[in-house]
UniProtKB/TrEMBL annotation:
Keywords: ATP-binding, Cell cycle, Cell division, Cell shape, Cell wall biogenesis/degradation, Ligase, Membrane, Nucleotide-binding, Peptidoglycan synthesis, Transmembrane, Transmembrane helix. It comes from the Bacteria. The gene is murC. It is an enzyme of class 6 (ligase). Residues 313-445 form the Mur ligase C-terminal domain. This is UDP-N-acetylmuramate--L-alanine ligase. InterPro entries: Mur-like_cat_sf, Mur_ligase_C, Mur_ligase_C_dom_sf, Mur_ligase_cen, Mur_ligase_N, MurCDEF_pg_biosynth. The chain crosses the membrane at residues 12-31. Residues 120-291 form the Mur ligase central domain. It comes from Ferruginibacter yonginensis.
Amino acid sequence: MQQSISLNNLQHVFFIGVAGTGMSALAQYLVGIGKKVSGSDRYFTAHQQTDTQQKLIAAGITCFEQNGSGINAGIDLVVVSTAVEDTVPEVQQALALQIPIIKRSDLLALIAASKKTIAVGGTSGKSTTGGMLYEILQFAGYEPSIISGAGLVRIMQQGKIGNAMVGNGEWLIIEADESDGSIVKYHPEVGLLLNIDKDHQEIDELINIFSTYQQNTSSFFVTNQSHPLAKKLSINIQHDFSSDEHTAGYKATDLVQSGMHITFKINDVPFSLNTVGKHNMENALAAATVAHLIGIDLSSAAAALKQYEGIYRRHQLLGVKNGITVIDDYAHNPAKCAASISACQPIAPKVIAWFQPHGYGPTRFLRNDFVHEIAAVLRPTDEIWMSEIFYAGGTAVKDISASDLINDIKQLGKQAFFVEDRNTLLNHMQPHFTENCVLLLMGARDPSLEDFSNSIFKNL
């Protein structure tokens, strides 16, 4: 990161790839603190505005096609994501004009340094836990800010993308991403580690990354003691809030799931949430723990989470039709897919889960983990379906198919089905539906998944 860049001195910032979840959140945040913001995206065309583009424009962000036309000498800083290559016209134009270019994570580090920051880390549950924390702090009158990796339904209801909000308070909640190693750039007041599961890197690499994250945390470092690898990093910097029995001195018990609703207790305080799964109890436990450490009592956290409305595409209920409960979920790594299926099992005696893997490299890397973790949670009545791997472009070697994963799962004695073209999925599934079942649709990175899931529900 270029040390001469100061957040206070920035007047006009341009984002290349501004429609991406991480980029759009930062762009909206900068508008919220009074900066001029513009950006381009490969999905923007002169003929039709996307929903995201319309919301960015409504937020005060000027949008351009990705052809270099948006870059001029009046721009102080250009922000790129890791996916943006040097050949993109905006990068070339910025270099020609000698405008500083930084990565998204470097800008987030600048923003985080300007506030008292709570950084949420872990390979699963970051968006949900961050959303719960935002709900609790907002309820308690802290007026927090948030930069999230997904839309909070409560903010989306205001017509916004939902992944960023600037509040008047001193606290900022961010997601600290381990997938590109950028988590080590942040120096939060409070660090939170939810879990460590094989995802983009091998476990040893992840432990090294999270160890640095722990060392960078200035006040409280809170870990999930029920996760064995996270527990290894449970040394608190100033206070001993960790023990073998508790998560930073806080324990969740008595989980009961009824349909799309869970109840449990944290240190004997009753909690009630309109969501599903043990993993969401753990997310709520993490959020309530951090909130309590910065001064919010558990009963206030419970009252806040009772009205928590969830995160976009995180176990999002699309509706119930013909006895089929349809749920859309962002699950995309082995642990998330297994947790998502498990969370749906108390709802109905049969779960039909569909998954679209993304990326040939990641699918190849995680093949055995997908197979064994999904197979381990499937009941005899449950089924797993997959369609072909989502390909976002590039030079990937296409030497693996989702059908390979399905065949491996079949070898383990589970009901597994491959439908190459997802547009024919419903026709193939129709005979498998019962009068009381869950249809769980899982996948990430593909921007058309929301429309696909809605289409499946509409055509049931």
